[in-house]
Structure formats: C-alpha cells, structure tokens
Amino acid sequence: MAGLYDQLTILAGNGNPELVDAIADYIGIPRGRAEVFKFANDNTFVRIGESVRHNDVFVIQPFACPINDAIMELLILIDTLKRASAGRVTAVIPYFGYGRTDKKDQPRVPITARLVAKLVGVAGADRALTLDLHAGQIQGFFDIPVDEMSAMSLTANYYAEQRLPKPVVVSPDLGNTKRARNFAEIVDAPLAIIEKRRTGNQDRSEVLNLIGSVDGCSAIIVDDEIDTGGSITQAARVCLDNGAAAVYASAIHPVFSSPAVERLAASPFREVVVTNSIALPAEKRFDKLTVLSVAPLLGETIQRIHTGVSVSATYRTAETMAAVR
Length: 325
Known about the structure:
Blueprint: E1 8-12, H1 17-27, E2 34-38, E3 44-48, E4 56-60, H2 67-83, E5 88-93, H3 112-123, E6 127-131, E7 146-149, H4 152-162, E8 167-171, H5 177-187, E9 191-199, E10 204-211, E11 218-226, H6 230-241, E12 246-254, H7 260-266, E13 272-275, E14 289-292, H8 295-307, H9 314-324
Helix pairs in contact: 1-8, 2-3, 4-5, 8-9
C-alpha cells in the first residue's frame, strides 16, 4: 500500500542517536539531517537540513536524562517541522519520562505526565508512538492518537530461550502484576509477587511480604524500568531469603540513576536484561548487563504507520527480523 504522504523521514534530537541510526537502518533509509544544539545562553536551537514539505516525519526522542532538555528538543523539533510544512509529524518517545507522576497521590502535587503529554500535542505533533508506558492511562493524557508498543515479548523471549531451571517470574510490587503475569505466560512459569509500601518521595520502599513460592527456583524479577535500582535489588534479596536458587532481572527502560549501576553490579543478579530504549553510555554498563535492541520493533511500527496498515503484526515481524539480523 502506498504511503499517505510523499516520503518517510526519520529525524531525532540528541537523546539516543545509536537507536535512531539502528531504526533508520532497519527501515532502509538515511537518517534525516537536523542540527539540535544549545547556544551559550542555554537556549536550544533547531535547524532542519533538508526539505520536509508534505513528508511523513517521525521524530525520535526518549525523555531521559537530561530529561528537561530532551523534552524541549522534541517540542522545538516538532514546531520547526510544522513551520516547514511537514505533512504529518509523529513523536516517537521510546521512554516517556515523568510517567510515574501520573496521578495525585498526595495533596497539592502535579500530574506532570499529563502536562508533558499535552505539550507534545500543543507543539504540533499529529500522533505519538511510545514504548511500555509506566501506566496505561497515560495514553489518555494525550490529545492526539497514541500507539503504545511493548518490548516485553522481546525480553521475555530472551529468557524463554535461556531455559532456566524451574523459572518463576516475580513482580517487585502489586502495581506491576499484570505486566509480570504476561511475562510469565511467555516464559511458561508461575508468578510470585512482592508486596511493598513506598515511603515518601525519597525512592525508598519497605518490603512487606512475598506472595507465592520461589524456593529452589530461578527467579526472574520483572519491571518496566530500573531507576536507582533500590527496589529491584531489594526484591532480589527477598527472593534469596525465601530460598531462590538464583535471581535474574528484566526491565524495558534502563534509567540507571545514581547509584543504580553500583547497586546492580554488586547485586546477586546473575544477569540484568534491558533494552536500548534509553542510551547507555560506557559508565552505565557493567559485566552482568545484557542490552536488547528495540530498533526492529520501532522500525516495523513506523513503517506500518507510514503505509497506513495495521500494527497488530508488528511484534511477530520485528522479532523475526531481529533474529535474522
């Protein structure tokens, strides 16, 4: 089916250039030319280096550290493209920062996820493409159509291929149970849940109880992101205290705020599996880390959105292509 717009164009900010290049390679097109930099006064400036008139433009930018710069780069890129008469602009956000601020759980606090989502639409984006939002309701915060894809099958299939002895999937909290249950179905393993209570705003939590059995099992602790690493390393200790033979970790987004790398490197995890939804510089990598690429998944989805066909077969096609490549 022919595209709805003249040409597919991939542009990006400075958030994750390696992922952008991998997506462009998957699609088989060169990455579009754009300058995105700061003046001496800290103002962000954007200049598009080619014509985008009537093009179908996908702007790829994860909202990761430095998160406020990443958001501003995307917003200014979108505004620049609309002023350059782009036919359609899709904001591709592999990691949606501020996603954990999705509700008022205390008096007099913001719902920042909604604010950021609305800003993307106000800047002029026609669509958004995201990957594993922290909470599904964030889709409703946007005033534009949203495609939320998931890389969970990518990480789950990786562990399924490892054929770990007596695997059990562990959710590190009650709110993550659905994601962990779906992961467990792919791995063909039972599910256990750690009940915990977060205390204040200091990224600390208190573990209360382990629901289910991990005795003698290979425990795979599954979450959507790893931030400071406190919760997931604490969950690993709980599993070992309850008789787990080995512990593994799986997450989509490697935020790795300090002191996550030190915690994970010193943890009892035998392997920590994440994706490249967020750029990982050398100082955030360690021996037990395995990084899987989401480029085939996002590249296939972008192609399907461009040609106006269903994205429902994206997972199967992307996984096949990733295995071939």
